Amino acid sequence: MYHDWFLNSLDNSDKEIYDVLINELNRGRRGLEMIASENYVSKAVLEAMGSVLTNKYSEGYPGKRYYGGNEYIDVAEQLAISRAKKLFGADFVNVQSHSGSSANMETYFALIEIGDPILSMSLDHGGHLTHGHKVNFSGHFYKINSYGVEKETGRIDMNKVEMIAKETNPKLIMAGFSAYSRELDFKHFKEIADSVDAFLVSDIAHIAGLVAAKVHPDPVPYSDVVTTTTHKTLRGPRGAIIMGKEEYEASINKAVFPGMQGGPLDHIIAAKAVSFKEALQPDFIEYAKSIKVNAKALAESLIENGATLVSGGTDNHLILLDISKYNMGGKIAERTLDEVGIFTNKNMIPFDTRTPFDPSGIRIGTPALTTRGLGKSEMKTIGEFIVKTLDNYQDKNVLQEIKQGVNELCDQFPLYPGFTALH
Ligand SMILES: Cc1ncc(COP(=O)(O)O)c(C=O)c1O
Question: Is the shortest distance between the CB of 133 and ligand 1 below 6 Å?
């Protein structure tokens, strides 16, 4: 009902944007969302986001605001904080970061000085831009050394990480990734960080939902600070949180506000609180387990059908497909998969000989489709669809046939079934 009201108002006042919303809803309904960093939030989360809380200014923190009228905003932010603390078992949580990138920037600003050395995973081996890439603030402000994966295994060799840490003496070690399909050994990262007197920051943007559900090793006991986006496997609104050990609470809070941000996004913070409550329910654990079961089933199907996977498989929610044997780059692969209704993203693979704009990999994830209700048998079918699409990317008839199959699959799993698309 809420959304009928929402869409009806928009329909009357701004038809162009109304159309964007309807078209996007329908695009989702007709396709398989397999971008590893995306998910579908609940209607409750959407309602909190599209709410009157967007109207409020509340610079500061609960009980210490620079504006009046924050008594209800304080309740929402406090709920978000206490639920996140319960979910992750952290000493403190700051729920105000606007995005994963700003959370990482705020964390660096809180812990180290401009020019200090950082050790992190390189982007082409699965790291994130904010872990020190040269086109990002992190690469400009800090001296970056990188670890990566081994060519033979596609996995991180912790002995190598230790060796590089000893050679480069980082002030901060970043454990985290955007495209790595195996688990991280946070305990070992902490031992290495301690041995060189560095902070350990874990960026669990991708795996936060798995960590919260305890189906992935937990970084919180070992890390000084943990950052995460809230919109990936955690299935909350677009945004981020920062958590960690008590001794860093004051400096993190200061780095977020007034260091980096002005007014917090109160509607988003309320939606974060809603999603944390959802993640504390027993069925979220089942959801997180299913993400992994589905990823494994998909990996098996891809391999059975002849695909090559970086590291040979997955232990989390994502798969990195090595498409170098096909006569095309990731740009065409992504576009062709898009055409049949399978949404993925082109991605660098370790030791890639192509460019980031047209790399040799495709990244695929199962969080969104698991939310939509698809299971192992559908993953088997989707694995077949993906390989058949890549094998036949120039054959319009085969692509049409796959698209038909994708549409039939989508029809069995309605997306946001209560929402009315009025045209
Ligand atoms: C590991 C990691 N950190 C940080 C980010 C940045 O998050 P945002 O896009 O919210 O800035 C991402 C986003 O993909 C990520 O994968």
Answer: no
In total, how many domains does the chain have?
2
- pLDDT tens-digit series, residues 397-411: 999 999 999 999 999
Q: Which of 279, 304, 339 is the last residue of a domain?
A: 279
| Ligand 1 pocket mutation pick from 108, 135, 178, 261 by most atoms within 8 angstroms of CB | 178
Residue 181 · residue 311 · CB < 8 Å: yes
| Catalytic site residue from 229, 230, 371, 389 | 229
Contact 279, 228 (CB under 8 A): no
CATH of the domain at 292: 3.90.1150.10
Mind giving me the DSSP string for 310-350? GGGS-SSSEEEEE-TTSSS-HHHHHHHHHHHTEE-EEE--T
Please name which of 150, 156, 154 lies closest in space to residue 186, comparing C-alpha atoms: 156
Is 1 within the bounds of a domain? no
Per-residue confidence (pLDDT) for residue 6, from 0 to 100? 60
| Active-site position among 11, 30, 38, 57 | 57
Question: In this structure, what token pair is assigned to residue 378?
Answer: 């559908």
pLDDT in tens, 182-195: 999 999 999 999 99
Q: Annotated catalytic residue: which of 29, 182, 190, 232?
A: 232
Between strands 318-322 and 308-309, the pairing is antiparallel
What span, in angstroms and rounded, lies between the C-alpha atoms of 351 and 122? Answer: 11
| For the CA of 99, the nearest atom of ligand 1 | 10
**What is the tens place of the pLDDT at every residue in 358-383?**
999 999 999 999 999 999 999 999 99
What string of DSSP letters covers 163-232? HHHHHH--SEEEEE-SS--S---HHHHHHHHHHTT-EEEEE-TTTHHHHHTTSS---TTT-SEEEEESSS
Query: How far lies 224's CA from each of 167, 187, 274, 276, in Å?
Result: 22, 12, 26, 22
92 DSSP β-pair partners? 244
d(CA 173, CA 26): 42
Q: What number does the ligand 1 atom closest to the CA of 231 have? A: 10
Residues 179, 92 within the same domain? yes
How do strand 361-365 and strand 345-347 relate by DSSP bridges? antiparallel
Where does a domain end: 279, 307, 325?
279
Q: Is the peptide bond before 258 cis (omega within 30 degrees of 0)?
A: yes
Q: Is 232 a catalytic residue?
A: yes
Is 205 near ligand 1, meaning CB less than 6 Å away?
Answer: yes
112 and 176 together in one domain:
yes
Q: Which amino acid is residue 213, in one-letter code?
A: A
